[in-house]
Amino acid sequence: MENNELQNAWKNIDGEINRKTTDELDQYLTSKCRKTIHKFIFLISLDVVVCIGLIVFLIITAFNRQGDLIYQTNNLILGAITLTALVVSFFSLKKLQGNRFNLPLKELLEQRIKLLSEWLLGRYSKLYIVLITILVAMIMLSIHVYYEYKPFLEVMSNTESIYGLAAGFTFGLFVSLFAVGKIRKYQLKNLEFLNDLHGQLCNIN
Amino acid sequence: MKSLKEEFLEILSNYQGILHKVSLIYFRNKSDREDNFQEIIYQLWKSFPKLKNKNSIGSWIYAVSINTSLYRLKKQSRIEYREKLPESIDKFDLIEEMTFSETSSKLLNAIYNLSEIDKSIMLLYLEEKSYDEIAEILGISKSNVGVRINRAKEALKQISSHGK
């Protein structure tokens, strides 16, 4: 196809497109806004239910173990982490909703690549392994010690309890790391895609 | 006085061809195109209050439409999909869902085979945008735009001559 043929063929395509009426466009916009709001509310609700549920559990169990200082400290730290996670996830979701696509493509790609690279490949990218391990250990301790109906130190000095705790911890850690690993793998694929687009856009050699 | 939404819908109604054409070059499947069309409308609506220069509405719509489509492709991993899809299915899709002339279908099939970035460059070229506008929409230099257009045209000619 020559240049003028290309232009003419394209003009034909333009003429053959079925345009929507203003009412239809309005419906598209309204329905998309509604869907997005529902999705946002669903995610926030899920987040709130899980976090609040955990906090309630931690408070009740801590009240039932008023003399056990180590157990209460464990629950207090866990509660603080859960509350922080709830606030951070709320703001992250809000930020995600506020993403704008009205930037030049190159700028947008660079922004996203930087963000994802820092998270997936940056200096603290492996920190999640340590944090998850600590969190799973603390949650397991809180549940296990509570249902043993004994003080924290007594549970920890019992070999049978330690075996049960180790089994629960290993399973919990495996599930958590597997889930996070899946998310990271998906995001790494996204990063690869963005880098590829950036390369296509900037590489003129 | 018009409300913000009325003003937006009026602009959208006048410029909706851009949204259709961007969706058309990135998505073969009708439902994907519809979803993308709706997503672009939503993204435009989100950034509409921050649109400062009302004289560059066209560029704004192109930028948001292209960026949104590329992000939807990312979500759906369409690159892999495109590479795996047999050519016969591409043509089947187009013929089944749209009623374009033979030349238009040939051009669309050729555009589908370009890289994701070359698709947008070719679209802007075919829409007769100036180098300045293309550079502004994609965020690259004017000289880069020139090189990219020539390459995309060459690739397109090669693909369409292969299809003959």
Summarize the structure.
Chain A has 205 residues and is mainly alpha-helical. Chain A contains 7 helices and no strands. In chain B, helix 1 crosses helix 3 and helix 3 packs across helix 8.
Structure description:
The complex is a heterodimer of chains A (205) and B (164). Chain A is mainly alpha-helical. Chain A is built from seven helices and no strands. Chain A has helices at 3-16, 22-64, 69-97, 105-121, 127-148, 152-156, 159-202. In chain A, α2 (22-64) runs antiparallel to α3, α4 runs antiparallel to α7 (159-202) and α5 packs antiparallel against α7 (159-202). Chain B has one domain (4-162). Helices cover 79% and strands 0% of the residues of chain B. Chain B contains nine helices and no strands. In chain B, α1 packs across α7 (116-126), α7 (116-126) crosses α9 and α8 packs across α9 (142-162). The radius of gyration of chain B is 16 Å and the shape is globular. Classes of the chains: A mainly alpha (205), B mainly alpha (164). Chains A and B meet through α1, α2, α4 and α7 of A and α1, α2, α3, α6 and α7 of B.
Could you give the topology of this structure?
The complex is a heterodimer of chains A (205) and B (164).
Chain A: H1 3-16, H2 22-64, H3 69-97, H4 105-121, H5 127-148, H6 152-156, H7 159-202
Helix pairs in contact in A: 2-3, 3-5, 4-7, 5-7
Chain B: H1 4-26, H2 30-47, H3 57-76, H4 78-84, H5 87-97, H6 102-112, H7 116-126, H8 131-138, H9 142-162
Helix pairs in contact in B: 1-2, 1-3, 1-7, 2-3, 3-8, 6-9, 7-9, 8-9
Strand content of chain A: under 5%
Contiguous uncertain segments of 5+ residues of chain A: none
The overall average pLDDT of chain B, rounded, is 83
**DSSP strand content of chain B:** under 5%
Alpha plus pi helix count of chain A:
7
What class would the helix/strand composition of chain A place it in? mainly alpha
Give the chain pair forming the largest contact, with residue counts: A-B, 46 and 63 residues
| Total DSSP E strands of chain B | 0
Quaternary status of these chains?
heterodimer
Reading the helices and strands of chain B in chain order gives HHHHHHHHH
In helices, the fraction of residues of chain B equals over 70%
Q: Helix coverage percent of residues of chain A?
A: over 70%
Question: Low-confidence runs of chain B (pLDDT<50, min 5 residues)?
Answer: 78-92
Number of helices of chain B: 9
Please state the CA-atom Rg of chain B, rounded to the nearest Å. Answer: 16 Å
Number of individual domains of chain B: 1
